[in-house]
Amino acid sequence: MVLGFTYALPNLYPTQPSIQVAYTDSGKSADQMLLNDLEEILDDNNINPQEIFLRENKIVIKFNSLDDQLDSKTILQNKLLDKVIIALNLEPSTPDWLKNIGGQPLKLGLDLSGGVHFLLEVDIDTAQQGRLELLLDTYRKNFKEERIQLSKSSIADLKLNFEFNDRDSYNKALNKLRLDSQSINGLQYIITERPSINSLSLEYSDVALRKIRDYAVGQNLMTLRNRVNELGVSEPIVQRQGSNRIVVQLPGVQDPTAAKKIIGKTANLEFRLEANSRTSPLRKEEFVFKENELMTASLEKAVVVSGDRVTNANTGFDESGFAQVNITLDMEGGRAMQKATSGNIGRKLAVLFVEQKSKSELVTNDQGESVIEQTTYIEKNIISLATIQAVLGTSFRITGVGSPQEASELALLLRAGALAAPMKFVEERTVGPSLGKENIELGMKSIMMGLALVIIFMIFYYRVFGLAANISLLINLVLITGIMSLLGATLTLPGIAGIVLTVGMAVDANVLIFARIREELKEKDPQTAIRDGFSRAFITIFDANVTTLIAALILYVIGTGPVKGFAITLSIGIVTSMFTAIMCTRAMVNLVYGNKNVKELKI
Amino acid sequence: MNIRFQFMKYRKIAGIASIIIFSLSVLSLTFRGLSLGLDFSGGTLVEVTYETPVDLESIRTTLTDNGFEDSQVVNFGTNLDVLIKVADQNGNSSIGEAVYNLLNEEGYKGELKRVEFVGPQVGSELRDQGGLGMLVALFMILIYVAFRFQYKFALGAVTALGHDVVIILGLFSIFAWDFDLTVLAALLAVIGYSLNDTIVVSDRIRENFRIQREMEPMQMIDLSLNQTLGRTVVTSLTTLLVLFALFIFGGEMIKGFSLALILGVLVGTYSSIYVVANMLMSLTLIQEDLAVPEPEGAEFEELP
Question: Which fold has domain A432-593?
Answer without folding.
Answer: Multidrug efflux transporter AcrB transmembrane fold (1.20.1640)
